[in-house]
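ok so I'm stuck.
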Amino acid sequence: MATAQAGQPTHPAKSQPPPGGPLSRANVTPLPSSRLITGASWLTGRYNPPANQWGDILPTVWSNDGSTYVLMDDGGVDVPKPGGFWRQSLAKITGAPPHLRFQRVGGALPPPHTWSEIGGDPDNDDGPLGPYYSTGFAEAGGVFYATQQRNWNWAANGSYTGLVGIAYSTDHGNTWGFPSKPFPAPLGNLNFVDGGGPGGAYPDGYMYAIGTEREFNASRMVLGRVQTGVANVTDPSHWQWYAGSTTGAGGASVPKWTTSLAAAVPTLNWSGHITYPQMAYDPGLHRYLLTFTYSYHAQAPALWKGGAQLVIAESANPWGPFSFVATSRNFGPSNGYGAAFPSQWMSRDGRTLWLKWAANFDGCAKGLDCSGVYGFNVAEVRLTAKAPAAKPASATAAQARRRHKLLYVLSGLSLPLLLVFAVRRRLV
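replied:
not stuck anymore, here's the structure
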């Protein structure tokens, strides 16, 4: 987890220059260029967060109560101690971009600590979810879910070591339950996909999440899904992992799923180029928008200080295949990460959106623009797109679940058992 060394920002919410220069269609990725979204441009410059907010990663939820909530790591809102922060904390956002207001959420929070008080001991670094970083945040059925990451060697950009569990809250983050059911490595930054509507918007009954094997410049992105409900979401044995696709009727991509994380097939491969991916469904364009960055240097501290590039991609499905949309070569400016398009701030036609991100948690290398704030930066983006594609045809949730049963790839499942499933399905 990026751990900020700077103090709390005090910047007003006024427009700054664009974050990293123009958005470009020069395709630097291994992905094909999108035929649907043919351009992107900044409509505004970058806006700083309000003076009372700081922190990073910043996954947001469009709640069923109509409000927006954000989870922050290594920061907080109205922290009652100079230089203090929480390992993770929650805030409610009101107003519309770029003029946002943040109000801290939570009852009896642990006391915030400064770096000197923590003294290198993670157990001295707490938040409402305990001494854990959290990068995955979602709502389904009025319940909040937040991941609890096992510590890892972040100073050397080491591999993730899994999750202690997924916590849940039935009162919009004021109190939390901790089932403490661990998820295996290399999961760490398991980040829920924004379904494109209030309360989660899960038309097939599944929540989706993406993750990589390390924090900065990972190489593989995997996709998981789980049916909604506390007993399902918090239990790793109920999760399924993308295991490749077949081609269905009309050329549609039909996913296969496995209960074995080790058998998961990456939805994106790009060696050393995937940092904090986040994904949101754009209902106006019927597309999933994937955003991530990568650093120009492989080793810390240059990894954090030496500049980063933003990539925007799209797909008709959360499992891809993805197509390249646009890039910003000096994003943040300079060291931005955790970029995403929250669905609550998308226009009806899906073409005008607000991007959020954090930047420069450890400063900048000499000569780079270090104006990006360690907090909730926003800027408005306009996508150039052809007439929206028809919404992908889909069966009812029950039909979809029945169809997927035959495509399951269960770890260790025998061929005779698969044949039994096939015969039973034909007899239904």
